[in-house]
Amino acid sequence: MTPAAADDPRPLSVGGLPHAPAADRAGASDIVAARVGRLRNRPSGFPTGAPARTLASAEVRQDLLAERVSGRFVLAAAPTAATAAHLTVGFGHADGSTCQGDVQLTTPTLDPAPGWARAGRTITLDQASEDAGWQDWDCAFAVVAGPGQTPEYDARVDRLTDVPLRPALRLGAVRLLGSTKVRLVPGVWTTVEVVVRNTSRADAAGVVVTGAGKGVQVRRTRVGKVWGESSTTERVSIRLRGRRAARVRLTVKAPHTRASRTVRVRPAAAPARPRAGVYVSTDGSIRFRIRNGRVVGFSARLYTRCGGYPDLPTYSWSYYDFPTVAIPRNGIVDRIDDGRLYDAGLRMRVSGGSVTKGGVLVLRAQPVLREGDLHRPAPLTACPPSACPPSACPPPACPPVRGSGWMAG
């Protein structure tokens, strides 16, 4: 062991490092959360000493996210007043087969210093360190010696291994048409919204949502990628097979992470059959017909925001239509239509001659909408014609822009 530049009055460099395997370092695209090492190599030249001055094992950790250093060091015997020594732990960089110490921490083995603790022959380290938050250390060592590093009794040294940051998925609220009370018409597949969160800085790839429960069926939903520190709202289809309340356990999973949430599902009576006629929103901006159990001739005039950074957004009134869609037995229309210039979704609940809990969602065109229920104010013959029939409606007067907006009842 020879001196090296560090914070300790007697910094060290310790030889005996093994050859570095390629797998010890994280990939270029990985976020390194920590570096760990079991210090297994004992440099040559140390005589057999007292057990209380001999290391049986040594483990260290550099936590980059928490900016801390920690370790666990086991002596061959518990120290006494006659066999007490000093333990120095160093983190640094490898130079060939030598670990050059950059940061060192020292404690008496009998009565540990602040940030250290001892239980019998085991000494633990846990201290805050600003250097641990950014240094790319690749080796560490532990040295047992007398005061001032002399005489030297024992040492361990080894390379550090990168620990990539892993994604951390969580399941948030589960909603049906905006409500957390999930009431399903038995036997009908119904779409609910599930919030998937990734609380880690690492991206989660290959994310899927599954579910299971007695008397309940859940279709597997492929989510794909969830970026680090972000969330997404996913559509999951559930069917209640019986007429009794049930519990469904939803699970989101990806490599290295998974999370579950239990949701209570209750049965609901089927609504009245949809009544034929013309339906308009309270402000007249949305109009459609219901004919033979289908929504036809949908037309919406929406205030739309277009463009974005680095340009200033522009606002205009644009017309949107929607293809014919059948109304299922549960009365819930919930469909996404992928268009050439924009994607649109239609969601509403139809019961007899009223439409509630509804809205129109436009993706890649980002409309600005006002709240209001959809309703059927008059018979078909009494409803004035639309200013822009769906067949003649032009596409949105702006380039596609990622975004969304809902008109919720």
Describe this structure in words.
This protein has 409 residues and is mainly β. The chain has strands at residues 13-15, 32-38, 55-63, 68-75, 86-95, 98-108, 116-119, 122-128, 139-145, 152-159, 161-164, 169-175, 182-184, 190-198, 204-212, 216-218, 221-226, 230-240, 246-254, 257-267, 277-281, 286-291, 294-306, 314-322, 325-326, 332-338, 343-351, 354-363, 367-368, 374-375. Strands 21, 22, 23, 24, 25, 26, 27, 28, 29 and 30 form a ten-stranded antiparallel β-sheet that branches. A six-stranded antiparallel β-sheet has the order 7-8-4-3-2-11, with no helix packed on it. Strands 1-6-5-9-10 form a five-stranded antiparallel β-sheet, with no helix packed on it. It starts with 12 loop residues before the first strand and ends in a 34-residue tail after the last strand. Residues 1-8 and 365-409 have low confidence and may be disordered.
Brief characterization of the structure:
By secondary structure, the chain is an all-beta fold. It has no helices and 30 strands. Helices cover 0% and strands 52% of the residues.
Name a few traits of the molecule:
single chain; 409 residues; mainly beta; Immunoglobulin-like; 3 domains; ten-stranded antiparallel β-sheet; six-stranded antiparallel β-sheet; 30 strands; elongated; disordered N terminus; disordered C terminus
The low-confidence runs, each spanning 5 or more residues with pLDDT under 50, are: 1-8, 365-409
* Form type: elongated
> What is the count of structural domains?
3
Largest sheet: 10 strands, antiparallel
Could you say which structural class the secondary elements and strand pairing correspond to? mainly beta
Q: Report, as a whole number of angstroms, the end-to-end distance.
A: 75 Å
* Beta-strand content bin: over 45%
| Strand tally | 30
Gyration radius from CA atoms, angstroms: 33 Å
In helices, the fraction of residues equals under 10%
